[in-house]
Design brief:
The complex is a heterotrimer of chains A (312), B (265) and C (491).
Chain A (H helix, E strand, L loop, with lengths): L26 H12 L5 H13 L1 E4 L7 H12 L13 E4 L4 H8 L5 E5 L10 H13 L4 E5 L2 H5 L3 H15 L3 E5 L8 H14 L3 E3 L11 H18 L4 E5 L5 H15 L9 E5 L2 H14 L12
Parallel strand pairs in A: 1-2, 1-8, 2-3, 3-4, 4-5, 5-6, 6-7, 7-8
Helix pairs in contact in A: 1-9, 2-10, 2-11, 3-4, 5-7, 7-8, 8-9, 9-10
Chain B lengths: L26 E4 L2 E4 L3 H20 L2 H17 L1 H7 L3 H15 L5 H5 L1 E2 L6 E9 L2 E5 L7 H12 L3 E5 L6 H11 L8 E4 L3 H10 L5 E3 L7 H8 L5 E3 L7 H5 L2 E9 L3
Parallel strand pairs in B: 5-6, 5-8, 6-7, 8-9
Antiparallel strand pairs in B: 1-2, 3-4, 4-10
Helix pairs in contact in B: 1-8, 2-4, 3-4, 3-7, 4-6, 8-9
Chain C lengths: L33 E2 L1 E3 L2 E3 L6 E5 L6 E6 L3 H18 L4 H17 L1 H12 L3 H22 L3 H4 L5 E3 L2 E5 L5 H14 L3 E5 L6 H13 L6 E3 L4 H9 L5 E5 L2 H10 L6 E5 L5 E4 L5 H13 L11 E5 L3 H12 L20 H16 L3 E3 L15 E4 L6 H4 L6 E7 L2 H9 L6 E5 L3 H10 L4 E4 L18 E2 L12 E3 L1
Classes of the chains: A alpha/beta (312), B alpha/beta (265), C alpha/beta (491).
């Protein structure tokens, strides 16, 4: 009679499972590849396409202690019509604010296609009891947020309590209801690309619709190699399960040139089907004006001045 | 017909890539000019600037350090006249410049001559690498005013150290002219710092400073013993010139690190 | 799990995003209509009265007329080098160093111009000539400049002296870089040189003559003689040479070695390779794919140390090959002067024929070919990046050097088997090992019979890092302290 051996509790079978293998990431090679992709020289019509696309991918963001309804209203107007001097310039993807300002943003954006994204879960540190974090999410959803940007518990992650990180993502996803969930990894605190990959896979397993690099409150925020690392994790998930998870880079992207580099990384790693705001976002504020400036320069052939564009 | 009045140079300290006056406001009249008389606080600031600069300088590739020092030779060459006027003359300047070029060429060769792969008796890969010690204080010889400083400064720089130098007390102008060449080359701010003033005031401060890793006492002459006693407080490496020019002069400002790693399937 | 995909914005993703051409301007290079031989510091017409044309392999357009050096021209060049040696070898080493530092600086100053010329003449992407060839060439001169007056430290206890006149023959895959690898150490050690660039890529060597003018290299210290294989043969047979340094095919290397038998001429050879790129199942997978791609498609595979054999651990074969094929599809093949080009033109029609012949043999012998869809230009010589799976150790594509963008994939099960297969070749130039386990990298490095072992990387070069082969990949080292030795004699 055969006997099945009971595996010790919490024993993980190596090499199996629904998700791609964890694996390691070689930092030197990853950074080398990102640097090579950054060298792409995008000109003329391909540049105009990229600038227009980047504008459509922006989550126009204000996350300051000093935010007021007035500030959010001004930002929302900018989000709908970034360039008052050119009706051809598209709206951005979303406006991103704190939960207390979601209702204001919602009213200001009514009638447009621009979404309301809200941070939640005790953004940016995530250092609060779970019930407080979930209440934060629910409040934002009730106020009308279409998208929720949560932060993972880095304290749990860095002390090895990966299961807790996972459980939290699952709980937040549930609290989101129909709202889209973006999970912020805060890559600048994770310490290595191996950790970024691990966090990416955990977030995806927990139900993330998008994974996001940073809160923008910690330096370093988004970098090209970190984005490439996360995009490779997204690709592995897509290859092995068919699941589509989006990517958002946030923090430190101020120049159009940088935005285009991220698009090249996205394009050459995942393919042209990913060049849509449904699958990629830039969390940014000052980037928008540089995109407008570069777009006008491309169309007119003349170097522009930042003064030509509104500060909202 | 009136003679043209030349614009006289103000000789200040060189700290953190800038030329500040002494915080004490004091000057000394030397060689016909008012020269800043650095204080203990200036010395302290210089050490802070040097420490800040070490990470970047030691983290640069050896090739980059070599190129930067070669560029220093370039900026010195175009300043030959000013340097000659502040030292014993053009021959000393040519010697100093060629010395910079000589040491610049060592940057990317040190590991090959000072380091080694060691054949240990076991399945381990074992190698020894030279690394810069960190912040080095240099008490420059009184003479030659330029080449004396260069012959101690550059071997310390090549390996990746940042330096706080006390210029020759009787002939400090050459050191500041050199600092101007440094400031207009690609040497990062804080990697080279030059203090002018009284050796007796400045050397002991640096010798006792707990955040200085090594002190070169070639120019200290009679004060050596005091300085060596002070240096013991944080086990500073005490260095003195043994040869005029040699990779072993570089080595005296370097640490050696040995690394083991198993070899196995 | 993730939400169901529904379009949430007005504009859908595009079918493709085509990058507009971003061309590096050619105007930065001004080419003469015709180039004589550079001998004794002057440009002179060949006594052979024979000329040939150098063309751009991307467009087949003629670029310039080049002198074909005959036996008398070769003798003249060697004589000029001998004459110059008298003074050059006696010059103060610190002063020789300064000449070499100047050359390094001028190469940096004129880097863009030379990079464009290199891409025009040889077909490699401007991205590579600009970011790899030129910086390394300048760095090589910079590195060896520093040794010129420090030889006693490189060889303690010995008295190093120059050999005399070095005859140097370089190939067409890295024309200017190989010139730097030859000339820099030779001059640093006090020798003078007669260098013959490859027939299809003479331009940057001829432009280098102008660099020598700007650096004030004394006449006769560097001599550049152009021509085809016969020029090289004359050079090797010439009586007045003290050394031959050759980089090129193993076949020609053997011929040179035979020619020099019994003569008192020092020799170093840097020949072909069939490097194994060994990938273990615990590698950093996406980065290993980058390393494989870089190993064989960099410079169109025209690299002696190319990772032309992928030895992948059987357990990850399928997954790796899938990723590899997908990655190959993002390689941009096209105009070498387009900054976005990853893979340029094949250097000559002769080389294209060789590649095609071997690829056909792969198909005939039963290996499975894959090439990503590729729009190749009408004119010029091109070959799409290619990978063969199901390759056996006995297939020609696993044994012979193809020198093109063609990768052969084989499998192994254990580290011992990987070593065995990797070493099972007459070549021994380089190898790559991909695993996150440090001890295994060192264990493999210990056992691989190659002159260069790259751990978790590939195709890395540095002037301080000695490069050269085992077995029929040649002997002697270029780069590093060891790279001085071939250019010295010791009393």
């Amino acid at each position: 009679m055969s006997q099945t051996v009971a595996l010790p509790r919490a024993f993980e079978l190596p090499g199996g499972g629904r998700l791609p293998r964890l694996g390691s990431v070689d930092a030197v090679s990853l950074e080398g590849r990102a640097a090579e992709l950054a060298k792409r020289s995008i000109k003329r019509e391909s540049k105009i396409f990229a600038l227009d696309l980047a504008i459509r991918m922006i989550d126009l963001t204000t996350l300051e202690g000093a935010d007021t309804p007035g500030k959010v209203r001004a930002l929302s107007a900018k989000a709908i019509r970034p360039d008052p001097g050119d009706a051809n310039v598209p709206s951005v993807a979303a406006v991103c604010v704190y939960p207390t300002l979601v209702a204001v943003a919602r009213r200001a954006l009514a009638g447009s296609m621009v979404k309301v994204a809200s941070v939640a879960t005790a953004f940016p540190s995530g250092q609060a009891p779970l019930d407080v974090k979930l209440a934060d999410v629910r409040a934002a959803v009730e106020a009308g947020a279409d998208e929720i940007d949560m932060v993972i518990d880095r304290g749990a992650f860095l002390s090895g309590r990966i299961g807790e990180v996972y459980d939290e993502v699952v709980a937040v996803k549930e609290a989101c209801g129909g709202a889209h969930l973006k999970v912020i990894l805060e890559t600048g605190e994770l310490g290595s690309y191996d950790a970024v990959r691990r966090a990416s896979l955990v977030a995806i397993a927990g139900g993330a619709d998008f994974i996001k690099t940073s809160t923008g409150k910690v330096s370093p925020a988004a970098t090209l190699p970190v984005a490439l690392c996360m995009i490779e994790a997204i690709r592995d998930v897509y290859d092995e399960t068919g699941l589509v998870v989006g990517m958002k880079t946030a923090g430190g992207i101020r120049a159009a040139k940088q935005a285009i580099q991220y698009l090249c990384v996205l394009h050459e790693t995942l393919g042209a089907e990913w060049l849509t705001p449904d699958r990629f976002r830039f969390g940014a504020s000052s980037l928008l004006n540089d995109l407008l400036l570069q777009l006008r320069k491309q169309r007119t052939g003349i170097y522009r001045s930042p003064d030509e564009f509104t500060l909202d | 017909m009136s003679e043209r009045l030349p614009v006289r140079k103000t000789y200040k300290l060189f700290v953190g890539g800038a030329f500040p006056r002494s915080e004490s406001g004091r000057t000394l009249e030397v060689e016909g000019y008012n020269v800043a008389r650095a204080s203990r606080k200036d010395a302290r600031e210089a050490v802070v600037a040097a420490r800040k600069a070490v990470a970047g300088w030691s983290g640069a590739t050896a090739y980059n350090r070599g190129q930067v020092l070669y560029r220093l030779a370039e900026t010195m060459e175009t300043r030959t006249d000013a340097l000659a006027a502040a030292s014993s003359g053009r021959r000393e300047v040519a010697r100093a410049i060629d010395r910079v070029v000589w040491y610049a060429g060592w940057a990317d060769k040190l590991a090959q001559v000072l380091g080694s792969s060691n054949p240990v008796a076991g399945p381990y890969f074992n190698f020894t690498l030279p690394e810069p010690t960190g912040v080095v204080a240099v008490i420059a010889p009184e003479e030659p005013a330029l080449d004396g400083l260069v012959s101690r400064l550059v071997p310390a720089l090549v390996g990746g150290n940042a330096v706080v130098a006390v210029a020759s007390e009787p002939h400090p102008l050459a050191a500041i002219e050199l600092a101007e060449a440094v400031a207009t080359s690609d040497v990062p701010a804080g990697v080279v710092n030059v203090l002018t003033g009284l050796r007796a005031e400045l050397a002991p401060v640096l010798a006792g400073h707990m955040d200085v890793n090594a002190i070169d006492v070639t120019g200290a002459d009679g004060d050596r013993t005091t300085l060596e006693e002070l240096a013991a407080e944080n086990v500073k490496r005490v260095v003195r010139a043994r040869e005029e020019q040699s990779p072993w002069e570089i080595a005296s400002f370097m640490e050696l690190k040995t690394v083991w790693h198993p070899i196995g399937r | 799990m993730g939400a169901v995909e529904k379009p949430r914005t007005e504009v859908a993703a595009p079918a493709s995003w085509d990058y507009a051409p971003s061309l590096e301007g050619r105007e930065i290079v001004s080419l003469e209509r015709r180039y004589g031989l550079y001998i004794g510091g002057k440009h002179i017409s060949p006594k052979s009265r024979s000329w040939f044309t150098t063309i751009s392999p991307a467009t087949e357009e003629p670029l310039a007329e080049i002198a074909q050096a005959g036996q008398k021209d070769v003798a003249l060049a060697v004589g000029a080098a001998r004459e110059a040696f008298r003074t050059w070898s006696r010059r103060k080493p610190a002063e020789r160093a300064k000449v070499l530092f100047r050359i390094a600086r001028v190469l940096q100053e004129r880097a863009r111009e030379l990079a464009v010329a290199e891409s025009l003449d040889g077909g490699k992407p401007i991205k590579e000539s600009r970011d790899v060839d030129l910086p390394l060439a300048a760095a090589h001169f910079f590195y060896y400049a520093g040794w010129a007056d420090k030889l006693e430290y490189a060889f303690p206890g010995r008295s190093p002296k120059p050999l005399g006149v070095a005859a140097q023959i370089v190939p067409w895959n890295f024309p200017l870089l190989m010139l730097a690898w030859k000339i820099a150490p030779a001059l640093a050690c006090g020798n003078t040189v007669v260098l013959k660039p490859a027939e299809t890529t003479p331009l940057t060597a001829l432009l280098f003559a102008d660099v020598c003018r700007q650096a004030e290299v004394p006449p006769g210290v560097v001599n550049i003689i152009t021509g085809d294989g016969s020029t090289g043969a004359y050079l090797v047979r010439e009586k007045g040479i003290d050394k031959v340094a050759f980089t090129g095919s193993t076949e020609v290397g053997k011929a040179i070695q035979r020619e020099l038998a019994g003569r008192d001429v020092s020799l170093t050879l840097e020949l072909g390779g069939k490097a194994a790129n060994i990938v273990f199942d615990d590698c950093a997978l996406d980065q290993a794919v980058e390393g494989i791609v870089n190993g064989i498609y960099f410079n169109q595979g025209h690299v002696c140390c190319a990772g032309s054999r992928l030895l992948v651990q059987e357990s990850i074969h399928d997954q790796l090959v899938r990723k590899l094929k997908r990655r190959m599809a993002t390689l941009r093949v096209g105009n070498p002067l387009d900054k976005n080009t990853d893979v340029g033109a094949i250097n000559s029609s002769a080389q294209l024929e060789r590649i095609s012949e071997l690829v056909q043999s792969g198909i005939d012998e039963g290996a499975e070919l894959y090439q990503p869809p590729c729009r190749l230009p009408e004119k010029g010589w091109w070959f799409a990046p290619t990978v063969f799976t199901n390759v056996a150790q006995s297939h020609r594509i696993a044994r012979e050097e193809i020198f093109g963008p063609v990768l052969s994939v084989l499998t192994f099960r254990t580290p011992d088997e990987a070593v065995e297969k990797a070493n099972n070749t007459m070549y021994g130039l380089s190898a790559g090992v991909w695993t996150e386990k440090g001890s295994r990298i060192l264990w493999m490095a210990d056992r691989l019979r190659s002159g260069v072992v790259w751990g978790n990387t590939f195709n890395r070069f540095d002037p301080s890092s000695p490069f050269g082969g085992y077995k029929e990949s040649g002997f002697g080292r270029e780069g590093g302290r060891h790279g001085l030795e071939p250019y010295l004699r010791f009393e």
